[in-house]
Write a structure and sequence with these properties.
This protein is mainly beta. The strands form eight sheets. Strands 1-30-29-28 form a four-stranded antiparallel β-sheet. It has a four-stranded antiparallel β-sheet with strand order 2-3-4-5, with no helix packed on it.
Length: 430
């Protein structure tokens, strides 16, 4: 994002230069870009920009990346569009899927529920667009532009009815903490706020499944740690020098954050009694382009980060493995499942990558096209009928959700034709 004042005010909300006119260029994107970039404020595409002219953003080794798959390609059968979910009520900013239930968040403030790809239910919060959704057991957590987390539960009397069961932080906790002067922290120049409250939009939510700890990342440069069972904020971490665009909690007490300041950081969680403390373990990446998305494959301990320059960096056991180049514009979202990682972009496409066993290499299995606006969010579920297949949901600023069937298996003929030597992409130097 950019403005005439971006050199002086990197923390301000700016229109996204990557949005095309067909997607409503005046809408605000769901990540914040760094003040380092040099976009022209009125540019509606990245063509000719420093980002596009970067030697790291030239076409990758996968020649088919920018065209519809050939009629003779086996990927048409393996990776295909199942259907589209369209309800003209707002751009799609967040998704969550579980047990054939899909939750979509938009700038209409509605959270819509789909069951079996059919409109099932909806609930609404008058708190700004829905930027993040997490499903945990019988609860749904939503992060909003007003910096608060809402908690929802299904009515025991009617599965079509969702009721709000709480807000984090609670009004009582904010009031209690505000009494003590020591509970205030500086959030901007000459502005202080109670430490348990986000002072800018929530950009991402993540949950540690082992402990039930909830993490929220925000444009206020912090991530916060929550105990949902008590609706308590137990820690606030000043993590970055600019907006935190993504947070991912993983097994092994590790947390990763990505920011508009161009860094990806690893944090180690330590428990002391009932409290937690997150210690900076390592900075994995430092670059000028904003980090806009993160995903982690727990099975392989592979960390992926997407950037506003269209690149996807990855690390195996926190050792940099390389760069995936498949997008013309900013990577807006990532999702990892099994050996696959999917990247959604402002160029309206989704790249499907597969990590090859025993080597730091990824195969671009296919590029999913069909959206008419930037791909803003992704969610993945295992296909119930076929073990090697996944159901991928993609939400876009074209106000639709598309449902894809994606396979981890690639045809033998395709593997024989793939040039492994040319797929070895050198790491950029920062």
């Amino acid at each position: 994002m950019s403005s005439d004042k971006n050199a002086m005010a990197g923390n301000m909300v700016h229109p996204d230069p990557n949005l095309s006119s067909s997607s409503g260029g005046g809408d605000m994107d769901d990540y914040r870009n760094s003040s380092f970039n040099a976009y022209e404020p009125k540019r509606n595409s990245g063509e000719g920009s420093p980002m596009m002219m970067s030697p790291w953003n030239q076409p990758g080794p996968f020649g088919q990346a920018w065209s519809t798959p050939s009629k003779h390609s086996s990927e048409q059968l393996q990776n295909s569009l199942i259907g589209s979910l369209v309800r003209e009520e707002g751009h799609i900013y967040s998704l969550a899927a579980k047990d054939d239930m899909l939750y979509t968040g938009s700038d209409s403030k509605n959270i819509r529920v789909w069951k079996g790809m059919k409109d099932f239910s909806a609930f609404k919060s008058n708190s700004g667009l829905v930027k993040a959704i997490i499903i945990a057991d019988d609860k749904i957590f939503t992060g909003h532009q007003d910096g608060k987390i809402r908690v929802w539960k299904i009515s025991p009397k009617n599965p079509n009815v969702y009721k709000r069961s709480g807000t984090m932080p609670t009004f009582f906790d904010i009031f209690k903490e505000s009494i003590k002067p020591g509970n205030y922290v500086e959030v901007r120049r000459k502005r202080r706020a109670v430490w348990i409250k986000h002072t800018d939009a929530i950009s991402c939510l993540s949950m540690d499944k082992e402990t039930g700890i909830l993490y929220s990342a925000s444009w206020d440069k912090t991530f916060k740690v929550w105990r949902p069972d008590h609706s308590k904020c137990v820690e606030s971490v000043k993590a970055h020098d600019d907006a935190v665009n993504s947070v991912v909690a993983t097994t092994g007490a590790m947390v990763y954050t990505g920011s508009a300041d161009g860094t990806v950081k690893a944090w180690r969680r330590e428990q002391k009694g009932k409290s937690y403390k997150h210690i900076p373990a390592r900075t994995l990446l430092t670059q000028e382009s904003a980090v806009t998305a993160l995903a982690v494959s727990d099975a392989d301990r592979v960390v992926y980060s997407g950037s506003s320059d269209g690149l996807v960096n990855f690390w195996e056991a926190e050792i940099h493995g390389g760069v995936l180049r498949g997008h013309k514009l900013a990577v807006l979202c990532l999702a990892a499942a099994g050996r696959l990682v999917m990247s959604g972009s402002a160029d309206k496409s989704i790249c499907v990558w597969r990590r090859e066993a025993g080597m730091c290499a990824h195969t671009c299995l296919s590029v999913l096209t069909g959206h008419t606006g930037p791909v803003k969010c992704l969610a993945v579920e295992r296909d119930r009928e076929r073990e090697e297949k996944w159901v991928v949901y993609s939400g876009s600023l074209d106000k639709s959700v598309k449902v894809w069937s994606v396979s981890e298996v690639v045809a033998a003929a395709e593997m024989d034709q793939f040039d492994w030597e040319s797929s070895s992409i050198p790491s950029p130097k920062y």
